[in-house]
Each structure stands twice: as C-alpha cells, then as structure tokens.
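Researcher: Structure prediction, please.
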Amino acid sequence: MSSSGSPQGLSEQHRETKERLPTLTSFVRKLRGSRMTMVPHPGPTDGGEEQPLGGKSGALRAAIFGVNDGLVSNLSLIFGVAGAGVDNEVVIIAGVAGLLAGAFSMASGEYISVRVQREVYERLIHLEAHEIGTEPDEEREELAELYERKGIPRDVADTIATELMKDPEIALQTHAREELGLDPDEGLGSPVAAAASSFVSFALGAFVPLLPFLVSEGLAAIVASAVLSGIALFVVGAAISYLTGKSWLLSGLRMLSFGAAAASITFLVGKLLDVSFLG
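Model: Predicted structure follows.
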C-alpha cells in the first residue's frame, strides 16, 4: 500500500483499516495457515505422483477431519460414561448429547471462522481496488518493488508491473496475491455451506460409537463400539494419506492409536469415578 498521504474517498473506518494493514495481512495469512519453506530438489517424492485435487482438497480435508473429530470426541465421552457403570439409557443420552453439542459447536465455529475470513478478505480487496483506482502510479511502483525483492532485475520488474497495471482486473488480482497473500481464484467460501458440512461430518463420525448402544447394551455394546470405532478410525486415517501422500497403513494405525488412547483413558477415568462414588 502507498503511504503517501491519505487517499481521497475513503471513510474514516477504511482509513483506520488502511493504517492497520500490516496487522490485518498477517492475520489473513494465519487464517490461511502457515506456509512451509521448500526448495527445489531432484530427489524422489514420498507420495508418488501429484494428486489433482485442486479446490476439492479443502472440502475433502474438512470432511475427513470433521468425521475424525466426531469419532474421537464421542467415543471418548461414551466410553467415559460407560466405564462409570451407568445404565445403557444414560450412555445413549450422553452419546446423543455429545453428538449434538459437538456438531453444533463445530458448525458455529466453522461459520464464524469462514465469515470472519471472508469479511477480512473483502475489506482488504476493497481497499486495494480503491488505491489502484486512485493511485495507479504508486501501486505500479509498489508492485515493481515486490518483484524486485524476489530477485527480478529492476528494469524487468518495472516492465512486468507496467503491463500488469494496464488491466485493472489483472492488477487487482496481482496485488491481492503478491501484496496481501490472497488468491481470488480460490474463492471466499460460503459460511453456511462450511457450517453445514462440519455439522454433518461431525455427526456422522459421532454416530459410529453410539450405534452399538442403540441395539445392545453392557459389555457387548462396549466391545462392538470399540471394534466399529476402531475400523472407522483406521479408515479415516488411511483416507488422510490421500492428502498427505504418506503410507496409508501408517496413517491409519496412527489415527487408530490416538483414538484408542483417548477412549482408554476416559474409560479408566469413568471406572475410577464409579469406584470412588460407590466407596
């Protein structure tokens, strides 16, 4: 952004936003996640060929981790309650409550997260569009400096910046990527769709450990829930390897071990609470 005076036509609120731009752009990058530092190398890749996920990877990632969250959290809750030796009806009530509470919590959290991200994106892009329209020379100079800092010779950077600034739409997209770290082609996403997806995926995962208690009770239900949840955890872990390119077997076993550890700990805590209350 240009720092030469206050741009005309901006409201007081937008001028304050402009002054806080470094903080906001840093916040946007944190919302988008930290970036790994990579350098080109001739060695082999662990994951084989690149998967053409494109924009679907974000939705797939959200679905996989939503199911996993529902599985682990409700499995832990149900086993904690079952370990306390309560009636089967109490376990079912706890499982249903955990399913609904977790699903609504995930949905509201995802809605707020995507909504805030969208609002920040829109404000930053609005300010950038205003400056391109009112201060094109300063913005062209700024773009050239960005390319120069990337190692492009100054004369070449000036030529690139000049050509890009000829088309306002391309200029805005370039400034959004290079200066703000945003990619307009990715889209801003729908908060409602993100919330609905999180709700459904979490509920599906949370229903798995609850299902055996709806048709059975006691030790049989506990064993069936553990087996069914273990299979589901392994499948979810193996599915994650599609995104990471790692071994599906190791990924599945890792997810299974975390879920088993969480369920075992809560089951033991439930047992201890049952013994202490009875004592």
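Model: The chain has a mean pLDDT of 79.
Researcher: Thanks, that helps.
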